[in-house]
């Protein structure tokens, strides 16, 4: 019997390889991601979970869905660590997505501060999933710091530009013995499928679904794309020819006419 293909993070198993980033969260988005995309992990910013606000995202996330608090708003490792500890104290569990960004224009992660925060939080028993700019040396540092996965950006957050960093992500997939979860910039199902075909362990998306005209339909499309890409990766993609062509049907056995010219019809 074939062993079920599971995503394993921090010793926990997940059937779904689609993760919802909830920065543009709404009830419709969360319902669609769970019911139509099959998401089992949903991120949340701590500021949305605090009591006393106008809306609390925790009220909309169903039981059985794993919460992935992020450290959105942190500019240093110390700030990220403080947010992670607070998230655990208010009942969000041990999972944490490290986001440290000093750049407010492009929202690019600070890789060096991310490594520092990962090391501290991993020692404290957190399941650390750091968001990072795809760099092999930093990914190795995150591995040694105790990260449970590596989450390289595909393109700037919210841009929907797709796999702009494709070649660098492929290097991480090939060289790092951790789940590589492609995060940020995935704007449509075909891009999610391509990331999974490359060998990514999972894909996180938000804007591509949240800004769709039909959110449930787009969530379903993402689910199918992620599953198709994973299946293709496991099956092994076909070889690529450098030039020329390769017929899918035999090029022998043609019927000849009286002038010794082939008719182009196979027997």
**Order of H and E elements:** EEEHEHEHEHEHEHEHEHHEE
Distance between the termini: 41 Å
Number of strands: 12
Strand percentage lies at 15-25%
What does the radius of gyration come to? 22 Å
Q: Runs with pLDDT <50, length 5+?
A: none
Could you estimate the helical fraction of the residues in percent? 25-40%
Q: Categorize the overall geometry.
A: globular
The chain-level mean pLDDT equals 84
Largest sheet: 5 strands, parallel
Strand order of the largest sheet: 5-4-3-10-9
Helix/strand/pairing category: alpha/beta
What is the overall number of helices? 9
List descriptors.
3-stranded parallel β-sheet, 267 residues, single chain, 12 strands, alpha/beta, 5-stranded parallel β-sheet
